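Progress against Task 2.4 (sequence-to-structure conversion) is shown through the following example record, which the project officer requested during the mid-term review.
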Amino acid sequence: MLEKKLLTLACAGGILACGACFLPPMPERKPPPPPVRLDLQGIRRIRVDVKNQSPPNHLVPFQLAARVASEIIFQGRRLNVTAYPDSVSDDEDGVLQVIVLSETGTPGKKLSNWNGIEWSFDIGISAVLTKKNGQVVWRELDGGYRFSNNFAQEDEVELWKEPPVLDRLTGDVGTRLVTRMLNAR
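Structure tokens generated for the chain above:
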């Protein structure tokens, strides 16, 4: 029993000798700053208006407006802001006008483990959030949105006709646009 006590005492002494108790204090780690949020300047109700001016005209404006409005409600819940897709209304505090400038899909490599292709999509967007009085609160001119996904369709013309492709791209564009807007990027 005395041997165990001596061994324990020696171990404790060794730990102290190695500096476990005398280490310099750990540096204070500051939490990262909160993300910069857009000052909506009193806007609580946003009307989302989308137009597609790209020559191929694949993305459906009302579907994109609905997705953007949904994302504003979801991501802006702490800001107490709501949104709705509409082209004519008078009860909004601000208007987010989104214009689709370009839409391209580029096939990539064929996937060996699945009968499909990796597609890259480039969507050009211009967006402006204005208050009811016309003051610009946020804008993004010629914003580039790049996405990639795997789809079974190999032909680009047929690919754009696939509802899952359009649903996915509409969701991706809507989410990224609202994230950029609310985080003032």
